[in-house]
Amino acid sequence: MDEKNDAGTSIPMLFGGIFLFLVIIMIIIEVQNVYATQRKVKKELQIAANIAIVKSMDDEYRIDGVSQMDVSMIEYDFEDYLVDALDLSMSTMEHRNGNYEYAVNILSITPTENPPKLEVGVVVFLKPIFLQGLLEEYVGPNIRFEIPIDIVSKNQRLD
Mind giving me the DSSP string for the chain? Predict the structure, then answer.
């Protein structure tokens, strides 16, 4: 009789193990998606900040070793490159590839004229791949990850 009881508990244990394995795989995929999106957006933010600095530099003082920057157009140059590079909608700053993937919310753009530097604070809102459908009825339809990113430009002429 003990053998029948042991055989009957192995099937639920097997299903429990498979379920646990699938949950772990889903969590790994979600974490990888967040990490990949963070790396992609951070790289493009860094490039956008560097390009905005280069476009705004006044080269007339460069021979004297003095670097100055015109800060009036730096925000436009930064956002213009970012919209093109990340394929964002200009009005909503959202990336849609057939479906909503992520939104970029620029918190602060702080240019410094001397020495030329640009500091940018951004939050990326990312919808989950699997958790959206699983938790929607409990948490609500607006489940999203918030990824804060801070960037400081690298001035190639001075650094």
Answer: -HHHHHHHHHHHHHHHHHHHHHHHHHHHHHHHHHHHHHHHHHHHHHHHHHHHHHHHEEGGGGGGT--EE-TTSHHHHHHHHHHHHTTB-TTT-EEESSSEEEEEEEEEEEEETTTTEEEEEEEEEE--SSHHHHHHHHH-S---EEEEEEEE---TTT-
